[in-house]
Amino acid sequence: MTTNAKQHTRQKRNVVVLGAGYGGLLAALRLAPHARVTLVDPADHFTERVRLHELTGTRPTVTHPLARLLHGTGIRHTAHRATALDPAARTVTTDDGHHHPYDRLVYALGSRTPDVTGEHVYTAESADRLRKRLQDRPGTLAVVGGGLTGIEMAAEIAEAHPDWTVRLLSAGQVAAGHTPRGRDHVRTVLAGLGVRVEEDRRVDDPDSLAADAVVWSAAMTPRTSLAAAAGLTLDPRTSRIAVDSTLRAIGHPEIYAVGDAAAAHSGPAGPLRMGCATALPTGFHAASAIIAEGRGRRPGTLDFRYAVQCLSLGRTEGLIQFVNADDSPRDRILTGRAAVLVKEQVVRSTVRTLRLARRAPGLLPSLPGLG
Fold this sequence. Notes:
Elements: H1 3-10, E1 13-18, H2 22-31, E2 35-40, E3 45-47, E4 63-65, H3 66-70, E5 76-78, E6 82-86, E7 91-94, E8 99-101, E9 104-107, E10 111-112, E11 121-122, H4 127-136, E12 140-144, H5 148-160, E13 165-169, H6 180-192, E14 196-198, E15 213-216, E16 221-222, H7 225-229, E17 241-242, E18 248-249, E19 252-257, E20 262-263, E21 265-266, E22 270-271, H8 276-294, E23 308-312, E24 318-323, E25 329-335, H9 336-359
Parallel strand pairs: 1-2, 1-9, 2-5, 9-19, 11-15, 12-13, 12-15, 13-14, 17-20
Antiparallel strand pairs: 3-4, 6-7, 7-8, 10-16, 18-19, 21-22, 23-24, 24-25
C-alpha cells in the first residue's frame, strides 16, 4: 500500500447525505463506519413508500423511527430541510440557517407525485387523508394512472372499501411493462374487485372527472430543484441528475446521486426507472464508491440488473412478472397467494436490509442484488 493510500485509510471524510429514503438511508448506514456522516431530512422517520397504498386499507402505519434505525451508528441526523447546495464551497445549507460542509455528498432526495390541485384530489403521499375520506361515506373514486402505483391503489381501495365505486383510468394499457398474460391477470383481478378499467383515457385535469375523490398516480417527478439551482447538470429528458457509470454527478465528482433523483444507468439494465428496486442498489453503490475513494482506489461502475416486478392486487392477489436484466418482461409470471407471499417478502427485505446495515454494515456486500 502506498503512503497516500495509508493516509486515506486513516482519515474519515465528511459525508452529507440528503434524504432518508431507501437509497439515502442505506448509503448513510453503509458509510457510517468509514466516514463522519450527516443525514439531512426533515422527517423523524423512514417511510416505506412501496406500502403507501396499504394505508388506504387496514395497515395503521408504514413508517419506522429514524432514531431506532440510526441508533449506535454515529450518524448525525439533522431534522431540517436542505435549502441550498454550494458545490464550489462544498456546503449544504438547511432551513435553520446552518451550513454543513462535506468532502462527499450523496444526493438522495427521491421523487414525488407532481402537484395537483383540487379539493377532492389525493396522491399516494396523502394516503392517510384519503383513508379518512373513504371511511366518511361511500361515493365514486377515480384513480388516474395505469402504472404499478395506480393499479395497487385501485385494487387496495376496491377491496378494503367495497361500498365505493372505483375506476382506473390509464393513458395507455394498464401494466404496460408486463406480458399480455400478466396484463390479462391484472384486468381479471381488478374486474373481480369491481374496478372499472378505462384504457387509452388521458386525463390532464382531475377536476374534469365526475368523481367524489380522485387519486392522482399518473407520474412521478424527481426532487432535483436543489440540484438545478446549484448548477448540476440534469438529464433533459427526465430532469434527473446526470451521472456517470459510478453515479458521480457530471462535472462534480465529489457529488453522488442515487435513487429516483439520479439518471442512472448500467450496462445490463440500461437507464434505470424510478423505484425502490433501484434506490437500494444505487445507494449501496454510491457508498461503496466513496469508501473505495477513501482507500485510494478507483470507484467501480454500477452493475445493476433487474429480476422481477412485484405487484399487489389487494391483500389476497398479486402478480410477479419475471423480467430480463433490462426490465423487459419474460414469458413467466406468478399469481395468486404465492405472488402475495413473494411480494410481501420482497417488501419486508428492504427494512431487513436497513436493519442489517445498522447492525453489521460489513455484511451488505454479500447480499444478492446490491453489488
